[in-house]
Write a structure and sequence with these properties.
Shape: globular
CATH architecture of the largest domain: 2-Layer Sandwich
Largest sheet: 7 strands, mixed
Number of domains: 2
Low-confidence stretches: none
Strand content: 25-35%
Radius of gyration: 17 Å
Mean pLDDT: 92
CATH superfamily of the largest domain: Bira Bifunctional Protein, Domain 2
CATH topology of the largest domain: BirA Bifunctional Protein, domain 2
Number of helices: 5
Order of helices and strands: HEHEEHEEEEHHEEEEE
Number of strands: 12
Structural class: alpha+beta
Distance between the termini: 45 Å
Length: 246
C-alpha cells in the first residue's frame, strides 16, 4: 500500500531509511518492529500504519490511533551501548520536538514520554528493548503523534492535534525531519551535557509544582534520565512511574 501517496520504496528514498513497511491497519507498529528485528531487519527500519487497533502506551495503557489522523510510527534501533532506564525515550522526545520546531510548532516534553502542545498532550513515546544476555539486541521505538482531527470523543480537552498550530501540515513533512534524526540518535548510556541542556529548553515540567509521587518543584533531568524534584529535604530523584503536576 501507499502512505500519503508514496510507496514503501519511495518513502525509503525520501526519508533515508534502509527499509520501510506500510500498513493500512495493524495491532501495534511496535509488534511489527519486533517481528522484523527478530528476522534480521537492519537498524533504521521504519513501520508506518494508517491505523493501530491495539496501540499501546506506558504501563499497559491503550493508545488511540484512528485511521489517517496521526503518525503511528515504529522505528528499529540497534544500540551498541546499554542506555540507562528512560534515556532512550528522552532522546527520542528531543528528536520529535526539534523536528516539530523546524516546522514552526513549539512543542514541549513532559517527563518521561509525553509530547505537549499548548499544555495538552500531542503525542507519546514508548521504547521496548529485547535483550541478548546483558545487552539489548534491539530497541523498538514507538511514536504516536496526533496530526489531524477529529480527536477521539472524550479527549478534546486534554489532547491536541498538530494542525491546530500548523493548519497545512502533512504527516510526510514531519517524517522527513524526524526519521533522519532518529537514525542519528546517540546510543551512549547517559545523556551528555548538551542533551541535558537541550532537554531543559523543551521541559514542560521544569519549574512546575509536582504533587505525585512526591511534592516539590521539577528542576530538570539528570544524565541518567531521572527527573529531579526540589523538595523540603533537598533534591530528590524520580526514576519511573507517572507524574502529577499541580
Amino acid at each position: 500500500m501507499s502512505y500519503d501517496g508514496l510507496t514503501a520504496e519511495e518513502l525509503c528514498r525520501v526519508l533515508g531509511a534502509p527499509r520501510c513497511e506500510c500498513f493500512e491497519s495493524v495491532g501495534s507498529t511496535l509488534d511489527v518492529v519486533h517481528r522484523l528485528a527478530a528476522d534480521g531487519a537492519p537498524a533504521g527500519t521504519i513501520v508506518l500504519a494508517d491505523e493501530q487497533v491495539a496501540g499501546r502506551g506506558r504501563r499497559g495503557r491503550r493508545w488511540l490511533s484512528p485511521p489517517r489522523t496521526g503518525i503511528w510510527l515504529g522505528f528499529l534501533a540497534r544500540p551498541n551501548a546499554r542506555p540507562e532506564s528512560g534515556v532512550m525515550a528522552l532522546r527520542v522526545g528531543l528528536a520529535v520536538v526539534e523536528s516539530l520546531g523546524d516546522l514552526g510548532a513549539a512543542a514541549q516534553l513532559k517527563w518521561p514520554n509525553d509530547v505537549v502542545l499548548c499544555d495538552r498532550k500531542l503525542g507519546g513515546i514508548l521504547c521496548e528493548a529485547r535483550w541478548r544476555e546483558s545487552h539489548p539486541a534491539w530497541v523498538a521505538l514507538g511514536i504516536g503523534l496526533n496530526v489531524h482531527g477529529p480527536l477521539p470523543e472524550g479527549l478534546v480537552s486534554e489532547a491536541a492535534v498538530l494542525e491546530e498550530a500548523l493548519p497545512e501540515v502533512t504527516r510526510l513533512a514531519v517524517l522527513e525531519r524526524l526519521v533522519p534524526r532518529l537514525g542519528a540518535l546517540h546510543d551512549a548510556a547517559e545523556l551528555d551535557r548538551g542533551e541535558v541542556e537541550m532537554y531543559g529548553k523543551h521541559d514542560w515540567l521544569k519549574g512546575r509544582r509536582v504533587t505525585e509521587p512526591m511534592e516539590g518543584v521539577a528542576r530538570g533531568v539528570a544524565p541518567d534520565g531521572a527527573l529531579l524534584v526540589e523538595t523540603e529535604v533537598g533534591l530528590e530523584r524520580i526514576v519511573g512511574g507517572g507524574i502529577v503536576a499541580a
